[in-house]
Amino acid sequence: QTTGLSAINYISAPSFLATSTTATSTFAGGLTLNGTGVVLNQGTAANTLVTTAGGRVGIGTAGPASNLHIKGAASANAVLRVEGGSDAFAGVLQLEKTILGSVTDPIGTISFRSNGTERARIQSVQTAAVDTSGDLRFSTTPAGGSLTEIVRITTAGNVGIGTTNPLEKLSVVG
């Protein structure tokens, strides 16, 4: 004797309650609910959406390594698209630090990586103890070298190439 619900094409309801003695419920089509999170898999890892018990979300990966981890297929780019509703409401990617830090602490970072190694970085850094201002710095990795700051734009509007402390509107060192 079989107990439970069976449907041929689809079922519809305001909510579903699935219980199991193994604490895992799997639905045909790739939906799994268990004590560690939710997995929606449409046939391949590239089509996977995962939420973990630790609050991480993975798209294209079954094991998210950060709060939001997007992984493209081997032949595709991992794309994050932020789109606004109209010209007046553009898409915004906001990097926000909510805890007051000390001078030179990063506020937000965009890191460019290849094979697990950071190759370039754009970073906003705190420049005042009260967290009211921040410089923008650009860093790259020269061949055989390590990540090095090459350009800085200060809160005063000064641009430094080859210096982290430009004293004029444009300061070039090197």
Please explain how this structure is put together:
It is a single chain. By secondary structure, this protein is mainly β. The chain has no helices and 12 strands. It has strands at residues 24-27, 31-34, 37-41, 48-52, 57-59, 68-70, 106-114, 117-126, 134-140, 148-153, 159-161, 170-172. It has a 6-stranded mixed sheet with strand order 1-2-3-4-5-6, with no helix packed on it. The radius of gyration is 24 Å and the shape is elongated.
Q: pLDDT below 50 for ≥5 consecutive residues: which ranges?
A: none
- The strand count comes to 12
Major sheet details = 6 strands, mixed
| Strand adjacency order, main sheet | 1-2-3-4-5-6
Rg value: 24 Å
Shape: elongated
The average pLDDT value, as a whole number, equals: 78
Query: Which class do the helix and strand fractions yield?
Result: mainly beta
In short:
By secondary structure, the chain is mostly beta strands.
Key words describing this protein structure:
single chain, 174 residues, mainly beta, six-stranded mixed sheet, elongated
SSE order and pairing:
Layout: E1 24-27, E2 31-34, E3 37-41, E4 48-52, E5 57-59, E6 68-70, E7 106-114, E8 117-126, E9 134-140, E10 148-153, E11 159-161, E12 170-172
Parallel strand pairs: 5-6, 11-12
Antiparallel strand pairs: 1-2, 2-3, 3-4, 4-5, 7-8, 8-9, 9-10, 10-11
